[in-house]
Amino acid sequence: MPNLDEPSPQAIDLAAVLHALSDPTRLAVVRQIQSSGERLCGAFEVDVAKSTLSQHLRVLREAGITRTRCRGNQRWVSLRRDDLDHLFPGLLDVVLSAADRRTRTDVTV
Fold first, then answer.
1. pLDDT bucket at 107, cuts 50 / 70 / 90
2. For range 96-101, the mean pLDDT
3. 3-state secondary structure the chain
4. In sequence order, what are the residues at sequence separation of 6 or more whose Cβ sits closer than 8 angstroms to the Cβ of residue 42?
5. Distance of CA 46 to CAs 9, 26, 50, 96, Å?
6. CA-to-CA distance for 4 and 11, rounded, in angstroms?
7. What is the C-alpha to C-alpha distance for residues 55 and 61, in angstroms, rounded to an integer?
8. Is the dihedral of CA 70, 65, 31, 28 positive or negative?
9. CB-CB contact of 38 with 76 (8 Å)
10. Integer Cα distance of 24 and 70 in angstroms
11. For 39-75, what is each residue's pLDDT tens digit?
12. CB 37 within 8 A of CB 78
């Protein structure tokens, strides 16, 4: 199984990145990769159906946020952190930090 198509670094668009990060499920996926590194597609802790998770992973990949690597019949997902930091310095840190603050606020309310 070949690796899946993803945009080149030059083709990553800020609007697509922001759109992809605006969804709570996709943001949860990015946070999990950020905290523990590359993960198997089926190893994400999200409360959605497998088919829905596949769609969220596709949006993240097509926006240039993640890279999906195929190995045998498994798919591994990682962040394209270097590309994102080069194109949009600090963006991912700010978004993840805001998501962490939001999560802590939701838990204490």
1. low
2. 87
3. CCCCCCCCHHHCCHHHHHHHHCCHHHHHHHHHHHHHCCEEHHHCCCCCCHHHHHHHHHHHHHHCCEEEEEECCEEEEEECHHHHHHHCCCHHHHHHHHHHHHHHHHHHC
4. 50
5. 28, 9, 10, 17
6. 16
7. 10
8. negative
9. yes
10. 25
11. 999 899 999 999 999 999 999 999 999 999 999 999 9
12. yes
Whole-structure pTM value: 0.88
Identify the band that residue 5 occupies on the pLDDT scale cut at 50, 70 and 90. confident
Please state, in angstroms and rounded to a whole number, the distance separating the CA atoms of residues 66 and 55: 13
The first and second tokens of residue 1, run together, are 């199984």
Two structure tokens written together for 44: 């994400």
The CA distance from 73 to 29, in Å, is: 21
